[in-house]
Structure formats: C-alpha cells, structure tokens
Amino acid sequence: MSKVYDVAIIGGGPAGLAAGLYASRSRMSAIIIEKAKWGGQATTTEELENYPGSIEMPTGPKLMERMKSQAEAFGTELVKDDVTGFDISAKVKVVKLASGNDISAKTVIIATGAQPMLLGAPGEMELRGKGVSYCATCDADFFTELEVVVVGGGDAAVEEAIYLTKFAEKVTIVHRRDEFRAAKSIVEKAMNNEKIDIKWNTVVEEIYGDGIVEGVKLKNVQTGEVTDFRTDGVFMFVGTKPISEFAKGVVDMDQKGYIIADEEMRTSVEGIFAAGDVRVKSLRQVITAAADGAIAAVNAEKYIEKNFEH
Amino acid sequence: MIELNKDNFDAEVLQAAGPVLVDFWGDKCEPCKALMPEVHALAEQYGDKIKMCKLNTSENRRLAIGQKVMGLPTFIVYKNGEKVKEISGAENCTPATIESLIKENI
User: Fold this and answer.
1) Fewest CB within 10 angstroms: A46, A285, A310, B90, which?
2) Together in a domain, A13 and A98
3) pTM of the full predicted structure?
4) Is A37 in contact with B73 (Cβ distance < 8 A)?
C-alpha cells in the first residue's frame, strides 16, 4: 500500500497553509492539495491591512507567498490537483484526485474556501472578461482613466472600490441598502475619496454592451425607477459561495453549501475537519481562516492519537 | 511560447495560417501566473498543432482592449484572423478547460 499521510489538507489558502504549518510542526506528515492558485482568494486583494503584523507591504500575494514558504519549510508537501471525491468506508480515508494519484490519510481537513458569487444579471456571463470582473487586482489596469461601477456593500466591495480609484477616473459604488456592512475605517476612507460616488438603495438590473461593457441599467429599489448608466466596467463583490460540491453527501452542510463544524473544526464525519471560509461562520477573513487551520490541525493530531496505534 | 506585442500581433495571430491560442495575462494577475507552468506544459504537448502565444496585458493594454479583452485570465483561439472561441475568469480558466479549448480547435 502506498503512503498513508497523517493529514490530507484540501485547499492551499490561509486555512490550509496554517493547518499544514501546525501539522508539520507537530511532526505529522501533511500534504496540501490545491487545484488552482496557492493562497486562494487572499491573493486577489492588493491591500491586506487587517492581518496583524502585515502593516509593511501588506499585499495579499506577498503574505500568502510567505505562508506557503513557511509551511513548506517545516515539511508540508504541496501538490497541484483537483479533488473529485472521498472514500471514507475504512478508517484510513482516501481523497480521490482527478489525476488518479489518490491520497490515503488518517485525517482530512477541508479548507477549500469560497469563491465570488455571480450577481445573476443579464449580460453578466456574456461580458465576463469584457468589463465584468470579480478581481480588482487582476483587471484594474484595463480601466486606467475610465469609469467603473462596483457592486456590493461589504469589506471587499468598499476596499476594492478604493483600490480601483488608483486607476479609474471615477468609481461608482452601487449598493442595494442604505448603509455599508464594511468596517467603519474603510467606509470613512471611501466617503472621503473624491473619485468615489455612491448610489444607495440601488441594484444592477442589466449589463449591456456590444462585445464590451458600455453601461448598466440601474434600479432604485425604493422608487422602482430604472435609469441608464454609462460605464466601462462592472466589478462584482456581492458575496461568496463555498467550494464544497465535492464533499456533498459526505459531511453535513447548511442550505448554502457551507460545511457545518464545531469549535474544534470537527465535521459530522469523524476524522474529517473543516477550516476557513468553507465552514459555517460569522467572519470570513484571512485571520479567522488561519486560526481555523491551526485548530483543525491540533484536533487532527488528537484524533490520530486516540484512534490509531503508534 | 511566442511573446506577443503590438509589433508582432498582426503577423503572429491575425495573419497566421492555422489555429493560434493567445494567453492574455498580466503582472498583477495572480491566477494567470499560477496557470503559467501548466500553460507552458500544454505548449510543449500541443505546440506542433496549434501556435501557442502569450500577451502581457500590463505592457500591451491598448492591444488587449483592441481585442475586446478587459479581464484576466482570458484565453482566445484565433483561426484565419478571427476569434473562434474564448474563455475568461479564474474559475473558468483551468488546465483542464484550456486543454479542451486546444483539443476542440486542432
């Protein structure tokens, strides 16, 4: 039989990398499986000022690069692959991979995180990459001296709107409520930014353009009035959805697909833990993801001590 | 892979005989950079059947916008100077989807 790892960690964002670091430092054999980009969603934010200790050069990509090197330095193995499912019929669990190189492990930590949610407006899919964007750092360049709309009212929306003012001539935040959910310090910064305009109680009904975004139809949710608004780009920050499809029917989830875990990150299946944004929780941030990862790794170790002979 | 810019784009892409795949990427696009090793591997594998090119949009913004590309990552297949298929966005552009984009067009 091939190697049996102590911990197989699915997802290479802050939760997975912290879990790998803690597991490796406890002398457990750990492997992290990442399907796309190391660092996860955190790499798509330029300013990461709320991670303690990251005041200098607080960019998402830099912080995540350091987290990755740190886990690797302590011996965490990293592999690029796509998880397709599990076999949990035996005590040693099998994580099935697209490549066919399945991984056997005594415990599994699911740290797959979340991804941006689509708004669902007509034109959104057709104009993706043609002015409709979900990643300000990826695409801000294109909008130098142009005008953009930012949709949403949380931390991501307001922070990215501020970031976009470094490129765009004008940034209009469209928010369906009459106040932001974002942290007060960020909101103040946005309110004081001359390039930022805010449309409260407003939703985007439609995005249009001939091969490239030309404008949006905005609807005031109080009056029902629909207006035409010319813009070159639309950045969506309307929330996230969990990446948990592959674990459906294996561990318990809520209606939205977030995995239910307790304070010790234990899911409904013994030996399977969940950490980070993929879990049901109130605050989805790099710091809470990293904390979850540490807790999951420590509890994975306890589980192994109890259930496996040395 | 061929590095594209405004001087060679017409000759290498629009006037090329046979299919051409262009990887639109940028200096600040982390998903694009994460895909690069896999894209290079695909270029090794399929390079004799499809011309594999990349375009740094950070250095060639106007050229990219001229091709109606305003978001990254974006992969476009051209045939006889015409776009025949494109995929865009980090969730949609994976090694698997890029490989099928190539296979469908060779």
Assistant:
1) A310
2) yes
3) 0.87
4) no
